[in-house]
Every structure is written in structure tokens, then in C-alpha cells.
Amino acid sequence: MKNILLIINIILILLVGYLYYLHFQNGKSKTATEIKTSPSIQQVEKSKVAYIDLDSLQGNYTYYKKIKADFERKQSAANDEISNMQKKFQARAMQLQQKAATMNQQEQANAMDEINKMQQDLQTRKQGIDNELYNYNSKMKEDILNRIQDFLKVYNKDGKYSYIFSYEPGFMFYKDSTLNITPDVIAGLNQLYSEKKK
User: Fold this and answer.
1) 83 and 168: one domain?
2) Domain annotation covers residue 43
3) How wide is the angle at C-alpha 53 spanned by C-alphas 49 and 57, nearest 5°?
4) Of 67, 76, 80, 186, nearest to 137 (Cα)?
5) How far apart are CA 74 and CA 94, in angstroms?
6) What burial letters (b/e) apply to 43-65, b meaning 16+ CB within 10 Å?
7) 149 in the same domain as 101
8) Residue 22 — left, alpha, or beta (φ > 0 → left; ψ -120 to 50 → alpha)?
9) Is 173 in a helix, a strand, or coil?
């Protein structure tokens, strides 16, 4: 036990000596003003941050509202299609169930096959619709993200901002409203969209 403590103390003394040597290397240490003017500190001081409020953007970006309305129409049409298929399935199942007592064994087997096929077709179509909607939604989000990023490259071509974040409630605890560039971004995106429509 004494040997272990002795070894630890020797290691600590060597480390302190090495740190002392590094601190006074070249005869002096950096002063506070020298540290302040080092390139990495200057770069951090120059860094400017801005944010975009996503709720505001979604509520006021014309193209986003159009795409969202298109998606909702597709979703509504898909729900109607599935609902109609379910009604047909239920109606046919009840019809076959009412006839079951008068059917022979072969007719009952055929009726069961028909019901199983209708149910399988319904599930397959529902899965297909879900995949279509998911893919459409993903493409929509990617398209909007690309439009925002392309706009921000032009908007920030002077390098005024080092970082531009998206703000969503619950992800930031504090935000300085002077760093909010949402109105500029919305105006710019809407202008680009109206120019492309012409």
C-alpha cells in the first residue's frame, strides 16, 4: 500500500513539473490580452447567430401552405378510398354470413376464400397508401428544406451569420428576438415562389 502511494506521488510530481515547464516555456506566459486576440477567440467573437421560427414560417410561407393543402387532399382521398373498401368488405362478409346456413361445404370454402382475399386486398392497399403518403410527405419536407437552404445561401452571401438555426418551442430555453430573421426569410421565400409561378 505504501509503495502504491509513493508511485502515485512521484507521478503527480512529474506531471506538475511538466505543466510548470510548459507554462513558463519561452520565458513568459500569454497575457489575457494576447489570449483575447488569438485567431480562434476573434473568430468566436465575430460569429453571429440568427434563427428562424418554424411555426411562423409554416404559417406564412405560401409554398408550404400549398404543399400542405395538397398533402391533406391526398390524405383525405386515401382515407375515403380505404373507408369505401372497408364498407364493401363488411357488406360482402355480412351477405355471405347470412347465406352460410344454405351453403354446401364447397360454397362455404369459396366464401371463406373470397372474404380472406378481400381482407388481404384491403390490408395491402392500406399499406400501399400509407407508403405513398409517407414518401410524398418526405419529399415535401426535403423540397421545402432545400428551398430554405438555397435561399439562406443567397441571403447570407455576405457572411453576416456564422450559424442560422431553426427555432421550435421546447428546443431552446432562451432566444434573443433581435436575432430572429424569420420575417426576412418568409418575405424572400414568398417572393421566389411567386416569381417561379409566373
Assistant:
1) yes
2) no
3) 130
4) 67
5) 30
6) eeeeeeebbbbbeebeebbebbe
7) yes
8) alpha
9) coil
What is the full DSSP assignment across 46-112? H--EEEEEHHHHHHH-HHHHHHHHHHHHHHHHHHHHHHHHHHHHHHHHHHHHHHGGG--HHHHHHHH
pLDDT score of 178: 85
Segment-wise mean pLDDT, segments of 10 residues, the chain, 198 residues: 62 62 56 45 61 91 94 94 92 87 88 91 93 94 93 91 84 80 91 82
Query: Would residue 132 count as lying in a domain?
Result: yes
Number of domains in the chain: 2
The pLDDT value given to residue 79: 93
Q: Are residues 60 and 136 in the same domain?
A: yes
- The residue among 158, 161, 155 whose CA lies nearest residue 46 is 161
Domain that residue 155 falls in: 49-197
Closest by Cα among 190, 181, 180, 184 to 147: 190
Cα R_g (the chain), whole angstroms: 34
